[in-house]
Amino acid sequence: MTKRTTTPAAPAVRKTRRAPESKATGRRAAVSRTGPLAGLDVAARHPLLPRLHAPSPTLSVRQHAYERLLSGHLYEQEPLVTRLVNSACELYIGRGPVPVSRFADLDDLWCAVSENFDNIDDRSFGAMLRQAGHRTLMVAGEFFVRRRDRTDSPEADFLEVPIEWEVHGPQYVPLDFTQVEGGLRWTSGIATYRSKAIRYKFWSEDPYDPSLSTRLLDLDRSEIYHVADPSLGSRRGRPILAPALLRAIKMTTLEDSELRRKQVASLMSVFAVRPAEASDDESMLPTDEEVDEMLDAVALTPGGVFQLPYGFDIKTFEPKDEGANFERALRWQVMMIAMAVGIPLNEVLGDEGVERWGRMMSQRVQRQADLVHEMYEKRLLNRMWRDFIDAAMAAGLWEPPADLKP
């Protein structure tokens, strides 16, 4: 008997990815396996995460334009979104701001002539700011106010203080105007110097109206008030509804699907069937003409009594209705949309008993309103107040005290 000799197997070698070698030394570069950035490469390849790209200026312009179209469509077509925007305008703007300065006569002059500030001449100053201004800010992300000096114009005969303001949507300043012209660098229709806006490209008429002949004006910053809350590195504002767009689309899809399901569930199908045991006596069965006459005569009407021919029976089919959780799911979607915009849910749904923590919500709305007012004071109201004082002094309607600094 001979012994079988076996050769010991080589130990298993696990293949690993080699780190790149340094060109200068030929040695491997150190790779840290710990620290806050260790798992980012794994997370970036996760199939559930979206593929995001750095927003270039061209991509941002297209994205802003698409978001404006989508939010405008939802505002016009979706009642809950319409109610949400109108509620925000009512809560944050109301009847409009009233000046409170050291000079009571100047405040009274503003309140007396504020009805004529709008060039359309059918809205008060509060309505102009609420309907045309803040509504456009929420739907389109920004709006522009153009100052019109009427000192030497025919309109001065009808104005006590020769000044008016025109509220325009974001389409008046072209998003796609990005170039170098006259030594100025224009980005999305705005020329900047040391990161400050100094000039605006402004359409003379609404560019969306094909019946009007428009020309592109070059206006100074002193004539244009730009009201927006842009992100860092951007000159144009993003719609406030942007974080709620996806939720609003899902909510609309949910409503449509539930409506179709309830339409199907409300149907009742009626079938005239012939049981198998009725075929024993063939002489009693009706003819084909009698069957057609019976089907034409039978109708589902209240109080109707019909006698079926021999061998026929009626069976009904009613689809199953399982919409018990629809209202809860819809309310959740609306709550998410209201949360993204910063509006209490009861203001959107119109149900005063839907929220029990009214005091807490009112405090939150007050804080949000203070932030909105701060933005308006910085970007619009302070500049309008200074221009109004200059126009009142030029018209001889107000004189500052002699000891007041310019």
From TrEMBL:
Pfam families: Phage_portal_2
Single Gene Ontology MF annotation: structural molecule activity
Residue segments, region Disordered: 1-31
Domain of life per record: Bacteria
Gene Ontology terms: biological process: virion assembly
Name used for this protein in its record: Portal protein
Organism: Aureimonas ureilytica
Record lineage: Bacteria, Pseudomonadati, Pseudomonadota, Alphaproteobacteria, Hyphomicrobiales
